[in-house]
TrEMBL record:
Belongs to the glycosyltransferase 64 family. InterPro entries: GT64, GT64_dom, Nucleotide-diphossugar_trans. It comes from the Eukaryota. Residues 48-322 form the Glycosyl transferase domain. The keyword Zinc does not apply. This is Glycosyltransferase family protein 64 C3. It comes from Phoenix dactylifera. The gene is LOC103715533. Coiled coil: none annotated.
Length: 344
């Protein structure tokens, strides 16, 4: 009996170790071989696959929560965690697999950001959601974004947008934010067609641009926006390249502007929780890629270099954003107050 327990314990450890250490990513050469991938004609149109990129072990509790939340949604066929830190011990990652049978883990052999867009045999849906491990999207916002994508299947759909612009004084491209227009959807959370993964990873024309992404350890999302814009132009497709969606509860834990939001509570019994929440936010923010002071300049440099390498500036501006239905907006007199008629 004792020997049997030892054997069972060894088998359990071996199974977990195999799951964690054996799920390494295929090389880009394998990913570009159509024989290694499922037939795209069999992909499901009514669900999507969520690809979450993870690197920092400090974010593991949040990552596990996000993966479990997405996996619980009926519109999500699978959640694939792309772990890009090769030095993380396997046992540290084991809790990620206990959240849901829909959740799988892929250990990429290198921290290359290009791996976010590798075609993968586990993807069996026509759409994928590519997202960071510090962005939390509620189910209604995700459902809205997916519905928008299904009506714009050749576009990039997301909750976070930026813009390219031309600095006339310096005669160079810059990366910026405009209040009324945008041309770049960020990989904080973007939904796109699965076929674009193949274009990004396998177009030989993009080889030099992908090497730039590896050198900079940045700008993979900008390059994907170039890819989608170029593909739509080449195929003569009308409609927006990028579509911005306004979510109900979309939280970017890596944005330093949300630090300290929990400090508004003044109750003594909640003070400890508020302090812990602030510490958690600061720690998540500290390890964020965007926290670097030269982040915006480096991304402007990427736009300039992609333009030079590809000999085209395909990015196009979009205007406005999609919001959830507002209901009736007529005003009625209720209780001596003028309020929206559809409000109780």
């Amino acid at each position: 009996m004792q020997r049997r327990k030892h054997l069972l314990s060894f088998f359990s450890f071996f199974l977990v170790f195999s799951l964690l250490s054996g799920t390494t990513a295929a090389s880009s050469e394998d990913a570009c071989d159509p024989r290694s991938l499922p037939d795209p004609l069999t992909f499901r149109p009514d669900q999507l696959t969520v690809l979450i990129s993870g690197y920092s072990e400090r974010r593991l509790p949040l990552l596990r929560s996000l993966a479990a939340g997405y996996a619980s949604l009926p519109s999500v066929a699978a959640v694939i965690i792309l772990w890009g830190n090769p030095s993380t011990p396997s046992h540290v990652l084991s809790p990620l697999l206990s959240s849901s049978s829909k959740v799988t883990l892929v250990r990429d052999p290198s921290p290359s950001l290009n791996a976010r867009f590798l075609p993968r045999a586990a993807i069996r849906t026509r759409a994928v959601a590519v997202c960071d491990d510090d962005v939390e999207v509620d189910h209604r916002s995700l459902a809205l974004a997916f519905a928008v994508w299904r009506s714009h299947e050749h576009s990039l759909v997301g909750f976070f947008a930026r813009s390219h612009d031309l600095d006339l004084a310096r005669r160079t491209w810059i990366y910026t934010i405009h209040p009324d227009r945008y041309s770049i959807v960020l990989t904080k959370f973007m939904i796109l067609g699965t076929d674009y993964l193949h274009r990004y990873s396998c177009w030989t024309r993009l080889a030099e641009a992908r090497r730039l992404v590896d050198r900079q350890r940045n700008c993979e999302d900008i390059l994907m926006n170039f890819v989608v814009a170029m593909a739509m132009a080449a195929e003569g497709r009308a409609g927006p390249v990028t579509v911005l969606v306004e979510g109900r509860r979309v939280r970017d834990w890596g944005d330093p502007r949300n630090s300290g939001n929990s400090s508004s509570s003044s109750s003594d019994d909640r003070h400890g929780d508020a302090v812990k929440e602030q510490e958690r936010e600061r720690e998540i923010t500290r390890v964020g890629l965007s926290a670097r002071a030269d982040h915006r300049k480096r991304r402007g440099d990427c736009i300039r270099e992609f333009h030079r390498m590809l000999r085209v500036m395909p990015l196009r501006y979009s205007y406005g954003k999609v919001v959830e239905g507002l209901g009736e907006q007529g005003l009625c007199l209720k209780g001596a107050k003028l309020v929206f008629c559809d409000r109780d």
